Each structure stands twice: as C-alpha cells, then as structure tokens.
Amino acid sequence: MALEPVVITGAGVISALGHSLETLTSALLRGESGVRYVPELEHVGGLRSRVAALVDGIDPKQIPRRFRRSMSRMSMYAYLASVQALEMGAFPEEYLANGRTGVIIGSTLGSTETSERFFADYFTDHSLERMRSGLFFQLMGHSCAANVAQSLGITGRVLAPASACATSCQAVGYAYEQIAFGRQDAILCGGADEFHPLTVATFDILHAASTAYNEDPQQASRPFDAARDGVVCGEGSGVLLLESKKSALQRGAPILAEVVGFATTSDTSSIANPDVNAMYTCMRLALEDAGIEAHELEYANAHATSTMQGDIAEVQALAQLFGDKVPVSSFKGHLGHTLAASGAIELGATVAMMRRGEIAATRNLHTIDPQCSGVSLLQRNLQISPKYVLKNNFAMGGINCTIILRSYTHD
Amino acid sequence: MTEQEVIELIDSSLAEEFELERAEMTPEANIYEDLGLDSLDTVDMVIVLEGAFKFKIREEESVRAIRTLGDIHQFVLTKVAENS
After folding, report:
1. Count of structural domains, chain B
2. pLDDT tens column, A52-72
3. Residue B14: which domain range?
4. Partner-chain contact A133 B40, CB within 8 Å
5. Cβ contacts (< 8 Å) between A69 and chain B: which residues?
6. A151: closest CA of chain B, how far (Å)
7. Looking at the annotation, which residues of A are catalytic?
8. Are B47 and A129 an interchain contact pair (Cβ–Cβ within 8 Å)?
9. Residue A215 class from Cβ within 10 Å (0-12 exposed, 13-18 middle, 19+ buried)?
10. Which of A3, A230, A256, A393 is the most buried (most CB within 10 A)?
11. pTM
12. The CATH number of the domain where B34 resides is what?
C-alpha cells in the first residue's frame, strides 16, 4: 500500500526560554540561557547540583478548572503547547472529534510533584480520607495525553510513550507512522516533563549532573565543551501537529516541514551507558526509512546533553555516519535537558530555524573536547536553509530515536 | 458555632475548592446546573466538608440526595447539631 506523506503544520512550546515556538527560536538564535540557580535544591541532602532551566509565568487559571483539576504541571504545559500547535496550524475545530485526530504525548513519569504531595500527607497517618478525586488522573502514566485529549475534545487514538529522554522523539515518530499508514489524519505529538529534585538526583547519583557551575548557572550546560560536567535538568513541553500532506493541502494549512524518516532502536549493551554502534544503527535505519544517504543531510540536531560519555558517543556515531561534512549543534546549552519534552521542543525549534535560514550554534561550546572531534560542531550560528535534517534523542533504558525532516517548498 | 458561622464556613470552603463566585452561591443554587459541579467534584466536596467540620459523612446516605447549596447547609447544620 502507498504511504501517506506526513507534514508538520503546527508547533507549540512551553519552555524556560519562552511560551511559543517563535519566542523560543529567537532566544536560541540569540544564544540565551534559561538556566538558573535553584535555591530549593540546597535543602535536598546529598544533592550536589543546584541549577535547572525552569518554566516561569504560567497562570494555571487560564485553564478551566474542570480540566485543570486532573492536571499536574506537566499536563498543563502539554495542554498549553497543544493549544498553540492547533492555533498555528489553524486546525479546524470540527476535525478534533471525528476520530481521525489523535494525541501521542508522553512524559518520563506521572507527576512526581503530585506523588510527593500525596505521600507526604498519607504518611502522617496512613489515611486516604483526604485523597482528592483528581489525584489518580495526575499520577497515571498517560496523564498528559489523556488530559490533552479530554480538554480539547480529541476523539482519535491516544497514546503515551514513556521512554524518558527519547519520549517525544518517539511520539513524533509513532505519529508519523500512524498517519503514513492512513490510520489517523492528524496527531498532536510530543512530550512534557515538570521539574522535580528527584530528576536532578537521578543524574547526580550517576555522576552525570552538572555540579561545577552552581555559582555560574548559565555556563553549566555546555554540550561537547571540554569543560562540561553533566546534565542540567529542564522542564516544559513541546507538541507538534503532524498531519497527512493530503489533509493539510485540502484545508490549505501552512506546511512547516515534512517528516520523512524515523527509527527507534534498543541498545542492550547497558541500561545506562550509550553505545556508539547502537546510535549509529538507529540513525542509519532512519536514513533508510527516509530513502536518503547521509551525505544528503545538511544539519543534525544532536541529543548531546552535556554529559562526558553521551556527547562523546554521539559524536563518534555522527562521525561514523557523515564525518565532518554536516553541521551539528545541540540546544541543551540554552535549555538544559527538558527530558521527555526535549525531542519535540528541539524538533520544533529546528523546523523554525530551517524556515528562518539560520541554525543556532551550541551555547557554551567554547573549547571543543578533543574527544568530540571528527564532526563539524557549530560554535557560531550558521546561515543555511537545510533541506534534510537529522534529529537524535537517546534515553536511559537503552532507547535510541532518530527523526529525519525535509524542508517543504510550496510548489 | 452559630448557624451563620457554619454556613459561612461551608460557602467559603466550597468557594475556595471549586473556585466559585460567592454571588452565585445562593441557597437555591443547584450544585450541578448552577454551580457547575460534577460527580468527581461531589467526591471532593465531601472531603472538603469533612476537613472543615472534622466529621465523617462519606457513608451517609443523605449526602447523595443533595442537590442545592441549601441542601448542603441543612445537611451540615444537622450533622453539627448531632455532634454538639
């Protein structure tokens, strides 16, 4: 059977650098940082990292109480990003409830903040008598996806991939496949995560969180840099509106880019450590899916979280794929690691930059780590409008994911 | 507590929990049709009232008959009187 071409017609972002794709993209291109010192981390015993990229300025009351009562912060972020994506895509309201529009939005966990609040109360007397009806809906693994579908009245497929840092990259890939296969016409896809000290601790105990820049937070996240020392956690949501090209053209929607390739693979060498060959295999499979060769790529947006091991492994895999022929950058120097949201936030920003003709360099990449040599790492913004772009996200648990985008020309 | 204090505590507790406008909270107001609550909210309403008045009403059959804010006032006033 013939597969439907799949396009991106909208994107929404809630991030430490703004609450819209345009705001975020401009901030990235200006080289801004969303990272700051977080005093509450001082009170967590044993935690060494004190920095994070947090979302500011969200008024929960902009969401009707009826929907908000089942939302934790991550679902609010996902909802607000979804509304933006639908607005950007001028998506007709009547399509939401036709069963052909779906939601694929995941998070690393259900809400840890809600869980902590509940158990803090529960452990006082082991009573469930104060438990609110909305608790479960904030804790469940598909909370973001279900809340977006419920609040926007979307009646098609609802899925919630949970693969930590690869979550929203997978969500976009799965949406691409379902639309290509003709099962849905449009899907809101992406991810969301909310900041919690436990997330920082997860990296810190593995010696993978940044601890050396607590007094200079905006320098803390520095992918590929010789002086990097680990992940800076972020939060937010990225949601893309994927749609069949046929549907987008029929309704005259603005087409931002095409999704032409996807692969996700399991790296069984370790549940925590990256493997170069596994990363390479994932990227190769995505290129095969797109039907292009590596030399046709004109930009790669790396996962590159500013960890010692991860950045080196990814560079080696990229070097194996296309040597130094393709410019590479990571947005995590600006945004920190937004975890389950990172794939879709970074894909959205990449699409916006493809259209603007300017690609953001990696922030804080002053001295390239000699072990990250072999690829062309951007230290200055690049004025190009790439046709083919590769996007990676890799997650603990051995989950690898790659998306291939193609620029769209209205001809 | 006086009757008026009981009613004020009910109304202020429910207004805070369900973000209700006090002007809409007349005794005649139907909690579903006028105040916009639903079945999930009534679960939380019981918890809010139990917390405010330190009684247990979850198992009370008469809770299920509540339709108006005035019904809630009467129900709670009765419970408070029984417990005093």
Report:
1. 1
2. 999 999 999 999 999 999 999
3. 3-83
4. yes
5. 40
6. 15
7. 165, 303, 337
8. yes
9. exposed
10. A393
11. 0.96
12. 1.10.1200.10
